[in-house]
Design brief:
By secondary structure, the chain is α+β, with helices and mostly antiparallel strands. The protein contains 4 helices and 2 strands; from the N terminus they run E-H-H-H-H-E. Helix 2 runs antiparallel to helix 3. It starts with 27 loop residues before the first strand and ends with a strand.
């Protein structure tokens, strides 16, 4: 489950992990809110990335996918799986949330 550091967040800064990654020309970087990651597994995101024919549509395609997942009451989303594992209570479906995605191509 993602860290929640906002106004109503309960996590503390000491629980965060800072990573550094090398990037190369041609790499794609995805910046997104938890609405994407709570509703879509990494394999879902990679599938859209690898099968997308237009970079200009990539961010929107990821938003559409995440919204479809968020509104599917029968799908076990990453959020539902994490909730079940952490809270011990069954949960199915996606998480209705804001979904924002920015896709950047490194030049």
């Amino acid at each position: 489950m993602p860290h929640q550091l906002g106004k109503n967040g309960h996590d503390i800064d000491e629980t965060l992990v800072l990573n550094k990654h090398s990037i190369l020309s041609g790499d794609t970087i995805i910046f997104a809110t938890d609405g994407l990651f709570d509703n879509s597994y990494n394999d879902d995101i990679l599938n859209v990335l690898n099968n997308n024919t237009s970079f200009d549509d990539l961010a929107m395609d990821m938003c559409v996918m995440a919204k479809d997942h968020a509104t599917n009451s029968e799908r076990i989303s990453p959020f539902a799986r994490g909730y079940t594992e952490n809270k011990g209570a069954e949960m199915e479906g996606g998480k209705n949330d804001d979904i924002s995605v920015i896709a950047v191509k490194v030049v």
